[in-house]
Amino acid sequence: MTLALRRRTLLAGAALAAGGITPALAAEPMEPDEEALFMNGTARPTDDGRLEVDIHAWVYERERRWGLNAAFARYLGLNLKKLSPAAQLRFNQRTALFHAESEDGKVFDVEFDGSPGRKTMPPSGADGRVNVRQVIEVPRLSPAQQWLEFHAVTGPGELLHRFRGRALIVPAQGLSVISDIDDTIKRTQVRERREMLLNTFARRFEPAPHMAGWYRALAQAPDTRFHYLSASPIQLYPPLAEFVREAGFPPGSMHLRESTTWRTLIPGDEDSRAHKLGVIARLLADFPQRRFVLVGDSGEADPEIYAKVLRDNPGRVDGIVIRDVTGEGRLSERYRATFEGIDPVMWHLVAPDTTAWPMQAQTQAAR
Predict the structure, then answer these.
(1) Vertex 166 angle, CA 250 and 174, to 5°
(2) What is the pLDDT of residues 81-106, one digit of tens each?
(3) Is the pTM of the predicted complex or chain greater than 0.70?
(4) 187 and 110 both lie in a single domain
(5) What CA–CA distance (Å, rounded) separates 136 from 52?
(6) Among the listed residues 332, 329, 340, the one whose alpha carbon sits nearest the alpha carbon of residue 307
C-alpha cells in the first residue's frame, strides 16, 4: 500500500469513526510493490474426480528502511559487527520478511496448471493471510502426479509468475509422515537461545545425521507423503523450504506458525503446542483412511504432543519416533509418564549416532 493511499484510508476511517460508523475495508487488487508468499499445501482427490486444494498465502509489502536489521538484531541479543560477512549476509536474507508489512483487503485470482479458468481468492485478512479451500477440475491429472502447480493472477492477462505455489496431492490411502523440523531434521539447539538464534539466522542450516536417508527410504513406498510441521513463523518459509530441498529430504507440505511480527518470533509453549496439535488434527481429519507416523525430538514437547495424538486417534498412528537430543532415556520419569499405557513397540527413541531406522519393516509401508 502506498503512503498516499494509507493516508487517505486513515483519514476516511477517522471520519467514519467520528460519526460512530465502523469502516469496512474495501477489497482491492494487489499493487506492484506488494507480494504473495504461498506455502506448500495439500490437495485431496474427490470422489467425483476433482481436487480439493488448500491454499495458504501471505500478502505483504517489504519495508526497506535502514536500521531495521540492527534493531532486530538488538532485540534478539545478537551483535552484527561480531558476525562474519557471510553470516551477516545470511542474517539480512533470513530476517528480510520480519520487516514486511502485512496487507489486508487484497484480492487476486489463482490459475491452476492443467485446470481451466480462474479461482478468485477471498480478500486477505488483517494479518495478510489468505487461507481457503478450492475444488477444481483437473482433466489431465496423472495417477503418478504428486504436485499441483498454480500461480497468482492480479488482472486481465497479468501473470505474476514469481508468485507461484503448489499443493501436495495426497491419495486417500497410504502412509503420511508428519515431521517436526528444528532438532528433528535440522540442527537448531532450541534449548539454548543464543545458539538457536545463530543457527536460525546466521549459520548454514545443518541437517540432522541420517534423517534425510531414512526419509528417502520411506518415500520409496507407493503413496507415501511427507508433511513438515514447525512452530517457526511463516517468515522463515523460504529458507526452510530451500533447506528441505538442498539437504535431500523428500518434498512435502509445510505447516508453519502464522506469525507476522518479529516480536512473536519465539512462541510460548502453549502456542507451539496448540499449533502442532491443530495441524495434526486437520491432517488426520482430511485423510481419514491414511496411516500416520509422527517424528519429532525430545528438546521440546513433541513426545507429549504425539502421545496425546496417538491416544486420541486409536488405530491411526503406526508409530512415534523421537530423536533424542536430551539424553533422558526410555526409562526416565518423563517418558514413563508420557507414554504410560501405550504399547512400548509404538514409540521409539533415536540416538544422534544411530544408523538404523527404529521402526520395523519401514513402518510397515509395504503392507
Answers:
(1) 50
(2) 888 999 999 998 998 898 889 999 99
(3) yes
(4) no
(5) 7
(6) 340
